[in-house]
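Input record (Table S2, row 376):
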Amino acid sequence: PFPQYERMRATAPVFQDDQSGSWHVFRYDDVQRVLSEHATFSSRMGGDNPSGTGQLFASSLITTDPPRHRQLRSLVTQAFTPKAVDALAPRIAGLTDELMAEIAGKGSADLIRDLAYPLPVIVISELMGIPSEDRERFKHWSDVIVSQTRILPASETQDSTTSEMVEYFLALIDQRRSRPGTDLISSLLAAEIDGQKLTVPELLGFCALLLVAGNETTTNLIGNAVLCLAESPGTLERLLSEPALVPQALEEVLRFRSPVQSMYRVAVADTVVGDQLIPAGAPIVAWIGSANRDGQQFQRAAEFDVDRNPNRHLAFGHGIHFCLGAPLARLEARIALEALLSRLPGLSVASGAQLERMDSSIVYGLKELPVTWQPA
Ligand code: HEM
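Output record (protoporphyrin IX containing FE complex):
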């Protein structure tokens, strides 16, 4: 998509698609503004999307405006602060070790299937108290859900997937209601806002958002990181000798191959963006993936540079909806990458591999990532 973004930033940075009526915003400053000016650009859109998936996310953090957004978010911020997340590091390292032990002797693997996918799923499942035998199902659910854009009518597959997911979560919520634990779902069940419990759609929204939205994106951050490093001569070796550089390198991966390429908003009032008047009620797509390649913000924007600093990318959004899971995603990706570097010597993308991207304009990542190395 990157050459197309570049063309749009240069020729039509605020553009209306005649077919769908949606507006598309491509420049860094405009994307940042659309993401963060929540009084002008609303996140509420689930209600406009009649599909099952639209309804499922309709009462979640990501589709809620203040004041409800602030109230809902305050219930989960504690669980995701950098400090709370750091406490998970030993467990994440242990899980990474287990996954690495299964492949280290083999000399080749699909890094998506064998590491990047299972790691975030297991971590969030444990946080939410999901039984381990149920994890496999999320893969299918999230695949179907991310392949949908909100503007297109949902397909039957999407709707049946959503019903399956809703049934699963309702059963899980019931179970926790009768036997509370120390997991996130139990704490959401106990939470009150102004003396009121969360509604069932709000509980479902949390489950769906945490289990689906956070997993696929972290998987893709890890996969995209390996791809960026493999393509950039010498960087794998450099990170191996300077592991302290890994977090900064991951920020550059987030900029250069953003796992989330676009987010939606709806204009609350007639608003001028760039030199275009966007009318009240119009859907807007903010192209994060384009903002992160904008030469007005980043020098040599089209180059992957692990030394880039500062790096004010918008990969986790901006403003009140800034990604709740960012500290967790960063920690998981750092641990995974360090393990790959130290345990898979000579790591490279398998020669002749056809790298195919996932079928989505929102999520950016590879379906498979075949790699090889010299097993010890
Ligand atoms: C919000 C990206 C990982 C949970 C967001 C937003 C972006 C984003 C761009 C802003 C949405 C908006 O402005 O409308 C990413 C990326 C990730 C990642 C690139 C991985 C590399 C995670 C993880 C979790 C998570 C691991 C949970 C464990 C959330 C939640 C929100 C959110 C709950 C909604 C926050 C709100 O509306 O207040 N994420 N995310 N994300 N993310 Fe992430």
